[in-house]
Each structure stands twice: as structure tokens, then as C-alpha cells.
Design brief:
With 102 residues, this protein is mostly helical. It is built from five helices and no strands. The structure holds zinc ion (ZN). The site of zinc ion (ZN) has 9 residues, from helix 1 and helix 3.
């Protein structure tokens, strides 16, 4: 009898603790138990890795804020005519999304 989901109670506990583990919020003994489980359980290692990548990706996105229009204009005013031209082309394309070539 085999299951796709972790049937092991250790796995269920580990999955519940993984967020706390990544945040460093687990008490030392729980942390040790969690790490010992990872040694024996590739599935939970994969899960931990995916979650870590997800957190890294979302925090990167949060840091990326759109450049304010004023800053863009400022930079353009300082002399980047080619960039300005391509930006204008992009804007034209965006404001006419249904336009077809030809
Ligand atoms: Zn596991």
C-alpha cells in the first residue's frame, strides 16, 4: 500500500514546522528534530527547498517597485533620446492593444 502524500506522522509535523524553521522561530529541540527528519526524508528536503525558493522569489518581487514617471522623465531629460523613443513606442503599443499590423 502506497500513498502519494506523506503518510508519515513525522512528515506532517515537519511540513507544519517548515515555515517556523525558515523564519528561525522553532525552539532548539524542535529544530534539531526537524533537521534529523530531513536527513531521512528527501521529500521534505524538496518541500523545504521549494518553499525557500518561493519566499526568495516573493521578497524579490516586493522589492521591485515600478520607477515613478517623474524619475523616468528626469533621466530622459538628462539625455537619453533613444531610450525615450523606445519608451514612446512601447506606450503606443500598450495604449492600442487591439491594433493589428497591416
Ligand atoms: Zn518527511
Amino acid at each position: 500500500m502506497s500513498r502519494a502524500l506523506p503518510a508519515d506522522l513525522d512528515c506532517i509535523v515537519a511540513v507544519e514546522q517548515v515555515t517556523d524553521y525558515l523564519e528561525g522561530a522553532l525552539p532548539p529541540h524542535a529544530r534539531t528534530e526537524f533537521e534529523q527528519h530531513l536527513v531521512t526524508c528527501p521529500g521534505c528536503v524538496t518541500y523545504l527547498r521549494q518553499l525557500r525558493a518561493q519566499i526568495a522569489a516573493s521578497s524579490t518581487l516586493a522589492e521591485q517597485r515600478p520607477v515613478p514617471e517623474e524619475v523616468t522623465q528626469e533621466l530622459l531629460a538628462q539625455g537619453m533620446p533613444e531610450l525615450q523613443r523606445s519608451l514612446e513606442q512601447l506606450r503606443e503599443r500598450r495604449t492600442r492593444p487591439l491594433a493589428r499590423p497591416g
